[in-house]
Amino acid sequence: MIHLLRGDFVKKKKLKKPKLKVFTIFTTLLNIVVIGVLIVIYTPIIKFDEFWIPTAMTTMNHKYLAYTLYSEKHVEEVMNNNYIEKSGEKINLDDIKIGSKTTKFANKYEKDLLTRDKDNDVYKIIRIKEDNFKGYLVGVYDPSDVELAVPKHVGKFGQSVAKLCVENNGLVGINGGGFEDTDGWGNGSTPYGAIIQNSKTIWDYAGGSGELIGFTKDHKMYLTDDEPNQAIAAGMKDAVEFGPNLIVNGKVSKIHGDGGWGVAPRTIIAQRKDGIVLFLVIEGRLPGYSIGATMSEAIEILLRYRAYNAANLDGGASSTMAVNGRLYNKPSAGGEYGGRSVANAWIVTNKQNKKVPATATLKNKNNLKKY
Prior knowledge:
By secondary structure, the chain is of the alpha+beta class. Helix content is 23%, strand content 22%. The protein folds into two domains: 60 residues, no CATH class; 283 residues, no CATH class. The protein is built from nine helices and 19 strands.
C-alpha cells in the first residue's frame, strides 16, 4: 500500500540501460568469428578440408598450412581422395588435321575463337571471366608459330616470360615447365625434368616426375611418358616435362575430388583437331579479384573452345603471360618485376610475316631493361 502511494506522488526515476563495454563487444564478436571458423573448418558438410588441404599441398613452400589445421593422417586421407586418373589413351597424332576448316561452329565460344581480329592473323586473345576466377585464353592459328624458349644460361639463371619473348622474337608467351624453388621465390635456374629443343635433349633432371609435353616436327602436340630419346625418335621437336595430361584424343582424365591440385593460378597448353594451339592462363590467389581455378574448372574452359589434347604446365606464382614484350596478366607474385623468372616458356612467333598489329613488333630489346 505504501509502495502504491509512493508511486502516486513520487516521480519515478528512469532506469538507465547498462552500457556494454568495448572490450565485451570485441570479445563477443571474436568468439562468434572463432566459432564460425571452427564450424567451417571441421564441419563435414562444408568440405573446407577438401578445399584447403589440396590447395596448400600443391604449393612449393606452404604445405605447412595444411598441417596447421589438420592432422597428418587427415591430410593423407584427403589427398588420397583427390587425384587425377589418366584416361590411359595413347595420343593419336593422325587425329590432328592442321588447317582443316570448321564449317559450322559448335558453340559461341568456338565462333569467338575462329572469328579473327581484323589486324591479326597470328593469334587472338580472349578474356576469361568466371564467378571465382579470371584469366586469358590465346588462340594461335598456325601451330608452326609455337616455339619453346629457354634462358641463355639455363641451369644458372632463369628469365621472365616477357624477356624470353623479346629475346626470341615472341609476340605472346606463357610459362612452361617447373623448376627448383628452394627459397620460396626461385630464379628459374634449375628446371625440373627434361627439356627438348630442336630435337635435342638440352636438359635432363633425374627428379622430374611428369610427362613430356611438346610438339613434333609436324607441329602436332605430343604428350608422352617416353624417355626423351624415345620421344625424339618418334618426332618430338620441342618439349618440357610437367603434367598431368588433362585431355588426350578428346577424352578427359577423370577428376576425383578437385584432382589433388586445389584452387590456384593455372597455365595450360592445348591443341584443337584443326591444329590451333590454345594457351590458357588463369589468375589466382588474388582475393577480391580472382582466387584461381580447380582442374575441373580449367578443363571446362578448354572444352568450350574444343581442345582435343591438353596438358597442365607450372602454375601458382609462375603462371604468367606476356604480350608484345610486356607482362599481360596479374600474377600472384612478382608482378612489379614483370613476372617471376622461369626455366622456359612457350612463345608465339610470326615466321611467315602474317598480319599482326603494329604494336606487336619487338625490335627494341631494351623494352625490358627493368626486368
